[in-house]
Fold:
Amino acid sequence: MGVPLHKRAVCFCVLAAALISCTGERPKEAATTEFELAKEYKRGPVTLRLKLSRKAITIADRLTLLLEADASEDYEVALPKFGDKLQQFGIVDYTSPPPKLLGGGLVRRQRRYVLEPFLSGDYAIPPMQITFWKKGDAEPKKHELATAEVTVEVASLLPEKQGELTLREIGGPVELPRPRRAWLYGAVGGAVVVVGGLAALALWLRRRRRGAAAVPRLAAHEVAYARLARLVAEQLVEAGEVKRFYIGLSDILRHYIEHRFGLHAPERTTEEFLDELRGSDALDARFRPLLEAFLRHCDLVKFAEHRPATAEIQETFDTCKAFIEATRLDEKTVEVAADAA
Structure:
């Protein structure tokens, strides 16, 4: 009795894999580069590398920075310590894995940082210095090795050249045709079906909320950043819908203030909100002039038909993100649901 066809195919695959392993030839994987920029510096027994995931990013992107030092195991190496910010960048996350023993008696030490820009423009990553000395010496002589300054371009999400921005005029009222009697009966029946469907949907949503009590919550700034990215993706400015862009931008910041500080900003006028803000200590007094200027500028565009220039639009967007970044709370909060983003 012959061997079934599918079993022959399996045997052939196994045999082919064995032959490949015996000859030492393996399929080549596509080369991938994690870092676009890498610089190396040497002094004595130490090699220092600075790597960046991107040379240029947008204001909505994050940048990975890797600092790597290889030194003889006879030497001790101290990597630099960073605070909450690295010049204009904010440090979103960092990892410091334990030293790794390489071949030839070398030890590798690493620091990996995830950086986030505040505003658009050219960012300078300053020289980062390490210190190393030989182990076992009673009074070790310490040596220093530093990287060179690196510039990263942070581009805006808004277009640089938009020409003359124009707002579309609002058209006049359009008279709707009156429905015929037969259509009226159909409309009533349809309304009954819609009401029943809405009732069923409301019941389902209520049960879903009860079951989602343990869903992780996002911090207010995380939701705000997600909404900012969606607003820019709508390309309202490019379409000349500057007023709608400002309405969305103001709404995002107002909701962030409500979720972050518990101040009722979205449903109030600017004057009402500012009056409440003056009588509250929830927001640091340093940020109040910035916030007031932002809200009043948005009101000029929304209600006074002010047509901002391209530079004003960019500055307003950057001010919104800078305010969120300066007042963010890194700990997870329970005020904003994860599905709000």
About this structure: The longest strand covers residues 106-116. Residues 9-32, 162-172, 331-341 have pLDDT under 50 and may be disordered. The chain has seven helices and 15 strands. Residues 181-211 form the longest helix (31 residues).
